[in-house]
What does this fold into?
Amino acid sequence: MDTLTYEHRLKLPLTGEASKKFFTITGVLVAIGYKRVVIGDRGPYVEFDLSQLASENLVETKEKHFYYVELRTSVDNVKVYVQTRRVSYADYVPSMCYVSPFELHDDCGNVLIERLQR
It folds into this structure.
């Protein structure tokens, strides 16, 4: 994992903002505000608390996972993790929610992290 590469490519601060809005590619609201960005062995994830999620746009899946409850956006199927247990590969906090910044856009439709150029 190259943490500096992720930090350089992110289009948002690692520390949270209370008013930042997050959308799917088609404009479905996912959350308003965030706590921080966590960069672990599996890449970066934006951290939200439950009150920041646009719960009206999320549905719980029937998939069973040991470390999290899986939610999906009702339109674009973007995965939202509600952490239930600690893991060894990242500083995820139980009861907090996580979404890959690769799946999120700002209120102007801009990506939140640049993909690597090949």
Q: What stands out?
A: Residues 82 and 97 are 4 Å apart (CA to CA). The first helix runs from residue 3 to 9. The helical segments are 3-9. The mean pLDDT is 94.
